[in-house]
Amino acid sequence: MSRLFLVRHARTASNVAQTLGAGHDDPLDPLGERQARAVAAHFAALGLSAPRIYASPYRRARQTAEAIASALGMPVTTLDGVQEIHTGTWAGRPYSHLHTHVHEWRHEDGTPGFPGGESLRAVAQRFQTALESVFEGEGTPIVVSHGAALSAVLALLLQVPPEEAWREGRFTHGNAAVTELLAEQGQWYARRVADTAHLVTVSERTET
């Protein structure tokens, strides 16, 4: 039986501003740094056998993964293919437009997706391809990625239509949320999805 952990990166300024299309170098904010340490402590407490940590090439994901790696005494491997969805001409628009302007969320051929960017299905497929490489060795993979990318790949792995899952917010992840999956005979099952219990003590307070 295979075991896989998927983690959304901790909080950034773009998350606070609620704008789409944050760049590659968007860093964690002070709360995000505390969230990263909290999710790292969570993984340290699990006592995983031979954990392997992977991160999207984007800075916010790498910073979150580095906190986990430090707590586990393991290196981070950058994994191309698990980065955030490319938002095309929607970059800089507010998150709210995903609901108020959903009629514009189409490619020229009519398929759902960001104009000039990617579709959920395209993201899910590249993410799944990237995951194939993490199971070539021994150990338990921990993959740090992004909100929309995680929603897309979870819909694919758990056999839910991506557009339906997106519309219902079924796999929405808060910052530093953890999903745990198990696979048996090629079928994936969710043990927990978008869990944030490990963040209960993390607040907006200023550190002293």
Q: Specify the CATH class.
A: Alpha Beta
Distance between the termini: 44 Å
Strand content: 15-25%
Biggest sheet record: 6 strands, mixed
The rough form would be described as: globular
Strand order of the largest sheet: 3-2-4-1-5-6
Q: What would you give as the CATH superfamily?
A: Phosphoglycerate mutase-like
Describe this structure in words.
By secondary structure, this protein is of the alpha/beta class. It has one domain (2-181, 192-199): Phosphoglycerate mutase-like (Rossmann fold), CATH 3.40.50.1240. It is built from seven helices and six strands. Helix 2 (30-46) packs parallel to helix 3. The radius of gyration is 16 Å and the shape is globular. The N and C termini lie far apart (44 Å). The model has no long low-confidence stretch (mean pLDDT 92).
Overview features:
208 residues, six-stranded mixed sheet, 7 helices, alpha/beta
Short structural summary:
This is Histidine phosphatase family protein. This protein is α/β, with parallel strands linked by helices.
Write the layout of secondary structure elements.
Layout (H helix, E strand, L loop, with lengths): L1 E7 L4 H5 L12 H17 L4 E5 L3 H14 L3 E3 L18 H4 L19 H15 L5 E6 L1 H11 L4 H7 L9 E7 L2 E9 L13
Parallel strand pairs: 1-4, 2-3, 2-4
Antiparallel strand pairs: 1-5, 5-6
Helix pairs in contact: 2-3, 5-6
InterPro entries: His_Pase_superF_clade-1, His_PPase_superfam, PGM_Phosphatase
Protein name: Histidine phosphatase family protein
GO molecular function: phosphatase activity; phosphoglycerate mutase activity
